Each structure stands twice: as structure tokens, then as C-alpha cells.
Amino acid sequence: MGATHLPSTEFDETAADDQLEAAAEAQLGNPAEPMVQLLAPDGTLGTDPVFSAYAERLDGEKLCGFYADMAKIRRFDVEATALQRQGQLALWVPLTGQEAAQIGSGRASQPQDYIFPTYREHGVALTRNVDLAELLRQFRGVSNGGWNPKDTNFHLYTLVLAAQTPHAVGYAMGIQRDQKLAAAAVGVDGALDRPAEPKAAVVVYFGDGASSEGDVHESMVFASSYNAPVVFFCQNNHWAISVPSSVQTRIPLSNRAKGYGFPGVRVDGNDVIAVHAVTEWALEHAREGKGPVLIEAFTYRVGAHTTADDPTKYRESAEETLWRAKDPLDRLEKYLRAEGLADDAFFEQVKADGDELAAYVRKTTYDLETPDIRTAFANTYVEAHPLVAEELAWFEEYSAGFAETPERDSADPDEASTGVAR
Amino acid sequence: MTTMTIAKAINEGLRATLDNNPRTLLMGEDIGALGGVYRVTDGLLAEFGADRVVDTPLAESGIIGTAIGLALRGYLPVCEIQFDGFVFPGFNQITTQLAKMHARSNGNLTVPVVVRIPYGGGIGSIEHHSESPEALFAHTAGLRIITPSNAHDAYWMIRQAVECQDPVIVFEPKRRYWLKGEVDTDSPGASADPFKAHVLREGTDATVVAYGPLVPVALAAADAAAEDGHSIEVIDLRSISPIDFDTVTASAKKTGRLVVAHEAPTFGGIGGEIAARVSERAFLALEAPVIRVGGFHMPYPVAKVEEDYLPDIDRILEALDRALAY
Questions:
Q1: Could you report the per-residue pLDDT of B31-78, keeping only the tens digit for each?
Q2: Rounded CA gap, B218 and B222, in Å?
Q3: Pick from B75, B97, B106: which is nearest to A163 by CB?
């Protein structure tokens, strides 16, 4: 493809621009580039020598479920964006356009798997049964987390790009050791003495922008060296805020896996059936001890990077139009209708369920309680810490002075600072 | 009681933690067959196998980052960073991830990772092998930082670090790795709390606070001062975060004069923090300003001139002279 041309040794700005443009065009849909696609934008189902077998596991009920999930998370996205515009959230990170990549991969995971998201994986959160209202805590500024990852095996969002990728590999190395410990029946705690648990793997999400971070490289080296059961799931949504993916890579990102010695697959990220099939294959590969896999889900961030972003400053609306024609929901709707798997009543119900979810999320957001800063004192360390205790004691005394002093600017400066007024 | 070097004491402490809990594992560059560049992990690969003494790829961020993941899965990783100056590729993982995981999860997650860092100069080494970056980590809430100055503490501190549920960085005084001392492997005795400072020598005229590699220097300076008729109290700080201000303040109130010595540059360093806190707590008891002895505001100098950079007995005595002159 055009993107593989090496730049000339003498820098020629015009030529470089041409190359970037060529690369961008190629990435926007070079038919020569192999990409797993089962459900075409027109709603017709194709075949793949490897992955059709996985797609055949899906019945009408599951496909309808995928559609319902995608519609639900898109409706949630609209509601969260509205909440931000109304000042109820500090920021929102929209996912519209990436529903198939997230629902397809999330639904391929099993409860015993552990998921490390970046910060846009609201769709994956839905598939892991995270309460979506809890998801908004971080964006409302009442928590840096919001949910307990132990409940759903869905880790906290990580905002330092790619920092979660080595965590995922380490977690996968832990799974490997758990299996050996269980096999050797060398338990020091009860958890290790339980009957054999289902084999687990890890999925870690990151984007085309984060793929340039050193942590992704180091993670892939570690994963390869130790054959760790981890699936690297890269959503190439084409834009790292304002910088196109052609600046992050001159080759398909999935090709990078070759350099580390494990399989890489580029999948149509707007095709929920293909994404599900490829991820299911990759997770089985990992769980069976065959090592890591890189999946590049080729998709598009239809909206802005965040509610603080303005895509009109850096990209053409024609590009957005091009991608809207590849919409993940539209194509599945066409397929479900054509196959007689869903009717108007189904789609009306999906819409009603989405509105219900939106109302729930809105109400719950209003009700999210502002935490007490004392919880921040309490959670800085696990074990008692003298400096934290000292600063908390000072804060209590300082606060108590305000609480019991009628006027903030007391005539006696000692009264407020010493808490004498108590 | 057994006599052993600090390096051997850490080795024995690691062996004990590996023996005690199958979920403890060591990670780092060259820690397996070689036993680490300082041989601190010597013999442990043969004894515990490659799943528990893990020679990692040469990537510090990857070492800390995968250790965090292992900790999330219930393991107790002990990471070796080969040299102080090479911790920085892992700085992001330590400060933005390891330090904050418990807080940002609202207390739901714990990441009891231990990071061992040989630190300090005086070994005639090349660039990036002689630094003292402890203040950069002490400034980050969520981390605990300890540093042994003797073999007994070295043995117990590594065990206590592994048992601590918070992330702990153990700064190991590399030029003292071969310093021998008595170790009681049956009981920590007075070293039961790794976050408590020790008064090593009692005195009445002034206090010198030091930690890690400068503790023997501070003790020698106190001996020299005694010859001039000055009674110097010496405190081994042991823990850099948290700092045992109770012990330091009590001593400052008693002697009225305080000198803090470390190899790290004085500007923005631990000495400044101690000076500020002690000034707040013991202002009226102080007979002199708190005086800092430390490195200069420059990149660690070349080995041939490091003697002019590193605090030594005379530098501490000069600071004591200034304090006693008030």
C-alpha cells in the first residue's frame, strides 16, 4: 500500500505531504490491504476462511443483542454529551462510531477474563455489566475511578496513554503463574485450593495514538517473551485528537505484531460480527497458552475527541460522511431485517430501552454524591501514615474553626485557627 | 546473630520472602543467572526458578508496569532497577500509576510492589551510576521510601517492604553493599518498624541526621567532633517517606542544633523538608538555623572529582562548626 513508501533521504515537504495524503487515503479504504470483514456496509454477510466458523456460533438472539447493546451505548453517548453541555459533567469522551469494535470485542470476553480499558471504552463497560451511571463519576469529578474492578474484571480507565498496557501483560503473567500454582496445588491461601478455574486471558485496549507510546512496545516485548495470555486490542479510530493515524504509523498497525513474533489481525472495526469472531479467536488462542495477539480494529471516531475538541479545525466533513456510510448499527440493522431476525417492534423496543437508560443515567448523575476530601486522606495509603494523619488532623481543626465561628473573618485571629470557638 | 554484608543481607531477606510466600517474585535485568550486577540476587534463580526470579527484557517501564499487573492479580513483585540513573524510564509508571492506584480506585485496589534501587556515588563509576533521586519520589504521595544503612536493617527492611501493602521503594546504598554487620535473622528487634528513625549515638551539643550511605560518615564525624569536645547526636533517618519527625524533632529540641546530610543535591531535597518541619515544630528550641550538607546543584560530576561533590566527614564537621558558632 501507499503508506509503506519510505521517505526520501532529503526532506521534501511537498513530497512528505503527498506521502501523508497517500497514506491517509490508503488507510481510509485501500481494498488491497487485507482486513477481516464479514458484514459489509450494505448489510450482506460475507465469508472468511478462518473467522466464518466463529461467526457461525452467533444465533439471531445474540445478533439482536449486539444491536441492542450498540444502540444502547450510542444513546448513552448522546445523553452523556448532553449532560456535559449542560454543565453536569466536566468532560465527555464520546465513542460514537466505535460501537461495533467495543461491543463485538467486549461480548467475546468471558467473566473470568480481565479487561484493561483506556478511557473511551464505554461500550466494553456495558458488556462487562458496569453500571453506566458509575462510569460518569470520573467525568463528573466525584471520583478518579468510580467502580470496583473486582466486581466485573473491568479495570479503571487509565488516562496516561498506554500506561495500562504493561499492567495487562503483568496481569496475564499472573494468570500463567496461577495456573502453575494450581497445578502444583501449592496453595497458601484458600483461593489457590479451589477446583480448576476456567482458563482466563486479558484484553487491553488502546488507540492508534497510544500505539506510539513506548509502553506499548515494552508490553509487546514482555508479552512475546513470556508468551503471556493477552490480547492487544487497538481501536484505530484514525485520529489522536487532531493528528491523523498516518503520523503514528506508515504501515497497518496490525503488521507491527510480526515484529514481536505473534499474530496480528486487522478487522473491520465497524463490523460487529467480524470483531466478535476475531476477538473470540484471539481470546481462545491466548487462553490455550498460544500467546498474545494484536487486533487492529479499523474504525472511526465520528465525533470529537472529547467535548473540549473541535474536529472542524483539522479534518474534512467529507471524511466523516465517508465513514458514516460504514456505520456499524445501520449495517447490522439491514442484515437483521433482511434475514427476518428482527422487526419494527424490536427496533422500537431498543429505542425505548435506550431512552429509559438515558433517563436513568441522567437522574443518577444528578444524584451522584460529592465525596468528602477525608476519603482522599483515607485512600492515599493502605496502611497508617503519620504525615497523612497529621495533615488530616490539621484539616479537621481548621474546618472546625469555620464551622463554629459565625463570621469567617473573626476579630480574633486565634479563634479560627485554634478552634477555641468549639 | 550472623555477620554478613549488606548485599548478602538483602539476598537473605529476599530468600526469606520467597520462601514464605509463593506469590512473591523478583523481576529485573540480569537478576537471574548473573545474580544482578551487584550479585544481590545471587543463587536465587537456581533455588526458586525462572517464574519467581524473572530476568526481564531491558525495559524499566515494562518492569514496573508488569509488576503492577502482577500485583493486581495478587502477586508480590520485587523489582530491581539496575542503577539509580536508570529508574527514569520507569518514573511514569511509578509516579502516575503505582503511587495512585489505591487512591484512584477509592481504596478498592492495592498494589504492593517493591522497587529496589541501588543509589548514591563514591564508587568511581560512569555517568548515571551514582545518583540520589530519592527526593523526586518522596514528593509523590502514595509511595513509601526506606533506605538501610547497615546489614541488619537491610535484611529486615526488604522483608518489611514486601509485607507492606503500600508500594515501597528501597534505596540501597550501593557503596556500602560490602559493609559487614551483625544480622539477627530471628528478630528485627529495634528495627521492627521500618518507618522509624534510630538515634544511633546520643549527644547534647548538636544533632546530625543522615541516611543510607552517609550514616557511617555522620558517625565518623561525630567521633571527630568528640575529640574537639563536642557531643554530637546522630540519627539514622531510615525512612525518607514518611519521615519520623517525632524522633528528629525531639533530638533537635534536646540539642538545639540540627545538621542534615545527604548525597542528593540540597536544593529541593529531603534536608530542606526536614529543616522546614523542624523549624515549625521546634523554633523556640533551636539555637541555630538547620544546616544542610549535600550535593551541589549540578548533574552528578565525573568520577575523578566526585570526592569534591560528596559530603564527607569534613563537610559535616564544617556544617557543625557553623551550627555551633551561633
A1: 999 999 999 999 999 999 999 999 999 999 999 999 999 999 999 999
A2: 6
A3: B97
Nearest chain B residue to A201, by CA: B73
Grid-cell match 470496583, residue found: A148
Contact in structure between A395 and A160 (CB atoms under 8 Å): no
pLDDT digits (tens, 9 = 90+) for B271-292: 999 999 999 999 999 999 999 9
Work out the minimum CA distance from B106 to partner chain A, whole angstroms: 6
Q: Mark yes or no for CB contact A163/B96 under 8 Å.
A: yes
Distance from C-alpha of B101 to C-alpha of B108, rounded to nearest angstrom: 9
Cα–Cα separations (whole angstroms), residue A356 to A70, A287, A362, B8, B115: 15, 37, 10, 65, 49
Q: What is the SS3 assignment for B117-161?
A: EEECCCCCCCCCCCCCCHHHHHCCCCCEEECCCCHHHHHHHHHHH
Confidence of residue A403 (pLDDT cuts 50, 70, 90): confident
Across all residues in chain B, what is the average pLDDT?
A: 98
Question: Which residues of B are identified as catalytic?
Answer: 129
Work out the average pLDDT over A25-46.
77
* Consecutive H or E run containing A264: strand A264-268
pLDDT tier for residue B309 given thresholds of 50, 70 and 90: very high
Alpha-carbon separation of residue A119 from A331, A358, A365, B32 (angstroms) = 26, 20, 18, 37
* Nearest residue on chain A to B62, alpha-carbon basis: A218
Low-confidence winner among A219-228, A254-263, A403-412, B51-60 (lowest mean pLDDT): A403-412
Write out chain B residues lying below 8 Å of A148, CB-based. 105-106, 108
Phi and psi, residue A250, nearest 5°: -105, 0
- Reduced to 3 states (helix: H, G, I; strand: E, B; else coil), residue B2 is strand
Is there a contact between A167 and B69 if contact means CB atoms under 8 Å apart?
A: yes
Cβ separation A218–B64 shorter than 8 A: no
Q: What angle do CA B144, B150, B155 make, to 5 degrees?
A: 65
Mean pLDDT computed over A275-284:
98
Q: How far, in Å, CA of B38 to CA of B30, rounded?
A: 10
Q: What is the structure's pLDDT at A25?
A: 52
Residue A70's Cα: distance from chain center in Å? 14
Determine contact: A374 vs chain B, CB below 8 A.
no
